[in-house]
Each structure stands twice: as structure tokens, then as C-alpha cells.
Amino acid sequence: MRKFALPALAAMFLGSACAVDAGDNAPQYGVDNSYKVQLPSVVLYMATDPQDNIWALLQNGTVVEIAPSGKQLKAFTPKLEGRPESIATDSKGNLTLLSSRLKLVDFKYNGKRFKRTIPVQANYLILDQSGKELKRGELKGVMTASAARYSKNILVVADNIQSSLIFYDLAADKIINKTSKGIRLCCGIFDFWVDSDGSILVASLAAFKVLSFNPSGEEGKELFGKRGPDLDDFHGCCNPVSVARLPDKSIVTVEKDTTRIKIYDPQGKHAKVIEGVRELVKGCVHIPLAVDSKGNIYLASDKGAVIRCSKKGAEK
Fold this sequence. Notes:
Blueprint lengths: L8 H5 L15 E3 L5 E2 L4 E6 L5 E5 L4 E4 L5 E5 L6 E7 L5 E15 L2 E16 L5 E6 L8 E5 L2 E6 L4 E6 L4 E6 L12 E3 L5 E5 L4 E5 L6 E5 L17 E4 L5 E5 L4 E5 L7 E2 L15 E3 L5 E4 L4 E7 L5
Antiparallel strand pairs: 1-25, 2-25, 3-4, 4-5, 5-6, 7-8, 8-9, 9-10, 11-12, 12-13, 13-14, 15-16, 16-17, 17-18, 19-20, 20-21, 21-22, 23-24, 24-25
């Protein structure tokens, strides 16, 4: 799995919960045991399309479409420029695959010399849902794309090498905004969420906080979070690794090592743990997260399994 980074290049390379209810304002979720998906490779990233199908980008570069029933509809392996990173879907359901070109670099740290392969250029490939290529190119000024989502016609990218959220206009082929305010990363993990109104939530895991940005990324603030032992807090060396806002405006956060998935009210208070979620990954590894229009939550393990969590009483 991917393990790069803190903001400094040198530092970048050298380096089951019980069900407790903290309040009554967040919805109660549970694992939907009728949903069973096992994929042949590690899932790097997931996205949903307008039909609520899940699109998973695997570590081997394969793209898999999964129906709401859990049936695997299709799989194809497009030609990517470099290492696969993430996948995003636009309003038409077209797929944007992000990859990074790698380069071997030589650097000095604490008096010692090191050689490491690092991402130096992010690339994109746009496909329709049949796998037909529509467009490809470079994201100029972007080094890697550990996460990517659309905000209307703007592609928002998480560049963990630059510790920045980057807003990219593909039509104009340029960066239109870039922010690193409050963003603190660890373990090469950097994920975020774009809400239906364009507002953005960022998992600033090294700060143990969830950040909130307006649609342009020009205004940001700490929404909630701190390190601590209580249920509303985040545990471990660095968490959360993923975050999303549900259709009812509740917020879901994902913690690793150990795995803990929580639902907060819209203000980031009164957390509830999702019951029945087993350990999804081992160590400091990102846990891919997707949410459909009905509020179902999808999570991927480091063994290729995908699980679904639904509101209590709404399991399919």
C-alpha cells in the first residue's frame, strides 16, 4: 500500500470497536450482511455514479463496476500513465482515472544519502462507462492524486506530496486554486469529500481534525476533532483517514489501526460507532470510502473486500 508522506520530502520517506452511543442526534448504522463483494486486488479508491453503482480502482490498475446489489457488472484495465492512484465520476457518469509518473531521486537527510522513487507528475484518463477513452493528459503542477472528486465541472485533487488540495479546470488545463490551510498529513494518506453544495470536508489526520472549506477552497476552518480517548475523539497515531457527509447532512469518519467507523451529527458531535465492522486494514493504511444517494456507506479492506453499512432498518 502507499506510504509517502509528510510535507517534508525526507520525512516522507523515512517514515474493533465496541458499540457505544454518545448521543441521539446521529443516525444509527449497521453492517449490511446481505452485501458481499470480494475483488481480486487491493482497492485504492472508490466512487459512485448517478445510478449508485460503485466504481473501484484496484492496485493492479483494473476498474470494476459494482451494482447496488453487489453484483460485479464489468471490469477492464485501461492503459494508465504511471501508477494508479484514484478514481472520480462526473455528473454524466464518466470516469476519471488518476495516476502518477514516478522518478528515482537522490536526497540527503540527517547526513545520510537516500534514493527513493517518488511521484513527480499526476496524469488523468477520462473514460465512458464502457471503458472507451474520451481524453487523457497531465495535471500541470500536480504531483500526485491520492484522492479526487468533482465539484461541478472542477476536478478537486488531493496532492499529498504538496500537502495541498488542488482545484483543476480540465477544460482550461490549469490550476484555478490551491490550499494547504490546516492540512496536516501522515502515512501518505490524504482524503476528502465534496458535498452536494460543493463544500468540502478534509480528513486532516495528523491534526486529528475534520476541516471544512467552501466550494472554491478559499475559506477554510476546523470543523471538529481532537485526539483523545472519548468516542467523539480520534484515536491512534493519526486519524481520521477518510470523511464524508451523508445525504441527511450527518458526517461519517473512518479511523484505522484499529478500524472504527463513526457517524456524527451535522455539527460533528454525538458520535455513534457503526456496529459489526471488523478490522479492515493492518497498520497505517488508507481505508477507501464511498457513499451513495441513499446514504449507504461503502468501505474497502486491504484484502479486496467491500462492505456496505446502512441505516438501521434500511438494510437491503
